[in-house]
Structure formats: C-alpha cells, structure tokens
Amino acid sequence: MRSSAWLLALAPSSLLVLAPACRSTLDSVPDSPALSEPGFDPFGQSGAWRVGDRARLLLRVEDAKGREDYQVLFEMGSPGDPQRVLGKSMTSTVTVNDVKYRMTSLLMPVETTVRALEGGAVTRAQSDLPITFLALGFVDFCAQLARWGELEEGATPAPDELRAFAQGIHVLPGLLQLVAQNPATEPLLWRVIDKPSWFSVLRHGVKLNLDIDERLPHRAWFELPAPLDAEGPLAGWVLPVGINVNGKRALDLELSVTTPRPPLHLTGGVIAIEGVHPRRPERRFQLRLEGAQLGDGLPQFITISTP
C-alpha cells in the first residue's frame, strides 16, 4: 500500500480553490415562523435543478460555554432573466502532478436562512452557488481515493484516474460556498475555529480552503426516512477533510456523502458534517440533513464538461 504522503504530493497547496465572493444581503428578524417542515421528496432525475429546490439541516455549535442549535434552510432562488443566469459562471483550475484541469460551473442564486432554536432570531443571506460542481458529488472521488490506497508503492495512476480525481476536487468550492463562505453560516463557524493573527491578516488577508486529509475515505451506508428508504440503505462514504485558515489547520471534518441525486443535490450529496477543532476538542461544528424537497419550477439540466 502506498503512503499517505504520496496522496498529499498529488494534492499540493496549489489546489487551494476558493469559492467566488458572495452576493449577499443580511438581515435579522426577531420573530419568525419555523422554517420548512422536515421530510424528503422521492428521488428525482439526476442532473435536474428547479427553482424552489430546498434542503433543511440541523446545525449544532459547541464550545466551552455550551451548545446552541440552529435550523438551516438552503433554497434555490428565482433565476430571473434566463440569459442573465446562463451568463453567470465561475471557472476553477486544479493542478495534479503538474497538469492543470479546468472546469466551469453555472452559478445559480441560493437563499440561506438560519434560525436559532432558542430565541428564534433569523439571519438570511443570498449567494451564487456553483451548482455544476455540486452536481458531481463526492462518491466517485472517494472511490478513486480508496482505489489508490491499494496501489503498490511507486505505482502511478492512469491519466483518466487523475482527471477523475481533479474533477472531485472541483466539488470543494461548492461545499465551501455553501457552508464556510456563506454570510448566514460563516459567523457560526468562526465560533469553533481560531481567527488568524493580525500579522497573518495583514500579510495574507483571510483565506479559507478545504484540504484533503491524510486519512483515506471509507465506505458507509446511510438510512434515511421514507420515501428515500425504498431502495434500502444508501451507499456512500465518509470523507475526512480539513478547513485551513491562512494555511493552518483550523477544523477537522468528516463528511458523510452519497450520490447527489435529487433531492440530495443541493448539498452535493452531503448528508452530515462532523467537525472538531484539532487542538480544542470541546469545540465542535455539526450539520445533519433533516429534509430535502424539489421545487415547483421547470427542471433545468446541468451538463458537466472539463476542458
């Protein structure tokens, strides 16, 4: 079996891919009704997105002072002028073994609502989400990493395997945009991770990125409520990753991922996130998918290409 250092060499620091700056509006509402009811719609057609697609999650933040729970709702917003939406995109470049892989994602507006379970205060934000990246999901990426874990020392993956790996790396900006760089959820994340020093901020600003962990992903099966249980437990993976702030590990994460088939597509097939501070284990950040429904709009299909 090859060493984990080989994997890190395959994913150098140049893989740092940041999501685009959020187009955001923030407001606080003292009293607000509960967010959408939990529950899941039946599986839909892969690659289809609709206005009104939504995912509801439970977010928990823990530190030395205690624990706080929040409801989080992601909802696909109205695209407005189709020509304007079709013209909005972002391009990400990933370097693997000195080869650059470029991919372009369609950006779609998503509204995030965060409601504190105690007190009911609500925060809202709008951002443009790279949905082409999220449509890829992490399943193929995890399977590729697991296969590489069985390679003999010194063996080199085939070019198509490297491309598949690079394609999986492109999913990270979508997840970063959804959670870590979302104006509605980012303040909660900063409660459990250390802010960089003023010296670091002056030199580098504040840069967040998701980094592939030394540990390999492992297979898992997830039981979700009806009607998603019709085919039995969902096959997936547990993927270890980390959040770095200015190049320093700030949070160790484990992503529970499955195929991003609608209605699980808005989170890229991620159904849970468990995060713990690498040096202060009392600090934790957790997300769990509680519901996902399809919108009423006409489906828009995503075409994935990697130039």
Describe this structure in words.
- It contains 8 helices and 15 strands.
- The protein has one domain.
- The protein is globular, with a radius of gyration of 19 Å.
- With 307 residues, it is an alpha+beta fold.
- Helix 4 crosses helix 5.
- It is 20% helix and 37% strand.
- The strands form 2 sheets. Strands 1, 2, 4, 5, 6, 7, 8, 9, 10, 11, 12, 13 and 14 form a 13-stranded mixed sheet that branches. Strands 3-15 form a two-stranded antiparallel sheet.
- A hairpin with a 5-residue loop joins strand 7 and strand 8.
Supply database-style keywords:
two-stranded antiparallel ribbon, globular, 13-stranded mixed β-sheet, 8 helices, 37% strand, alpha+beta, 20% helix, 15 strands, disordered N terminus, 307 residues
List SSEs in N-to-C order.
HEEEEEHEEEHHHHHHEEEEEEE
- What is the count of helical runs? 8
* Average pLDDT reading: 77
- Provide the number of structural domains: 1
Major beta sheet summary: 13 strands, mixed
How far apart the termini lie comes to 32 Å
- Unreliable residue stretches: 1-33, 81-85
Helix coverage percent of residues?
A: 10-25%
**Overall 3D geometry?**
globular
Radius of gyration: 19 Å
Structural class: alpha+beta
Number of strands: 15
Q: How much strand content do the residues show?
A: 35-45%
Outline of this structure?
With 307 residues, this protein is α+β, with helices and mostly antiparallel strands. The chain is 20% helix and 37% strand. Helix 4 crosses helix 5.
Q: What's the SSE blueprint?
A:
Layout: H1 4-10, E1 27-29, E2 39-40, E3 48-49, E4 54-63, E5 66-76, H2 82-86, E6 89-96, E7 99-116, E8 122-130, H3 131-136, H4 139-148, H5 159-169, H6 171-180, H7 186-189, H8 198-204, E9 208-212, E10 218-222, E11 234-245, E12 248-258, E13 270-276, E14 284-293, E15 300-301
Parallel strand pairs: 2-14
Antiparallel strand pairs: 1-8, 3-15, 4-5, 4-14, 5-7, 6-7, 7-8, 9-11, 10-11, 11-12, 12-13, 13-14
Helix pairs in contact: 4-5
